[in-house]
Amino acid sequence: MAKKSKKAKKKLPLAYKPIGFALGWTSGTVAGMAFQKTWKVIRKEDDAPDALDRDRGWGEILLAAAIQGAIFAVVRSAVDRAGAKAIERSTGTWPVPDKGGRD
């Protein structure tokens, strides 16, 4: 019986991959929407500046990138953590076999 539970624990990270992919896609979508709303509040504009937009200055481009990166990191971490905790609650096993993070 102990062998069977070890085997199941080894398979869990592989089974988690599609769930992790779906969570990652969802978090990216949510982060994008959150960034658009945040930028609208900050600059009263519908569209955030693009790095290749000739009419925007360095400060505005880098501010938008920093805000977007921060929002993306927070949303992705929150979604990843919630997903891992849900897997742990339902299976009793943490979805990543070691203490390491993402590759």
Structure in words:
This protein has 103 residues and is an all-alpha fold. Helices cover 74% and strands 0% of the residues. The protein is built from 2 helices and no strands. It has helices spanning 2-43, 58-91. The longest helix is centred in the N-terminal third of the chain and has 42 residues, at 2-43. The protein is elongated and about 50 Å long. The two termini are 32 Å apart. The model has no long low-confidence stretch (mean pLDDT 83).
Can you tag this structure with a few keywords?
DUF4235 domain-containing protein; single chain; membrane; transmembrane; 103 residues; 2 helices; transmembrane helix; DUF4235
Low-confidence parts: none
Percent helix range: over 70%
N-to-C SSE string, H for helix and E for strand: HH
What is the straight-line distance between the termini?
32 Å
Structural class: mainly alpha
Strand content: under 5%
Average pLDDT metric: 83
CA-based shape:
elongated
Number of strands: 0
The major pleated sheet works out as: none
Number of helices: 2
* Rg from Cα: 19 Å
InterPro entries: DUF4235
Keywords: Membrane, Transmembrane, Transmembrane helix
Protein name: DUF4235 domain-containing protein
Transmembrane segments: 58-79
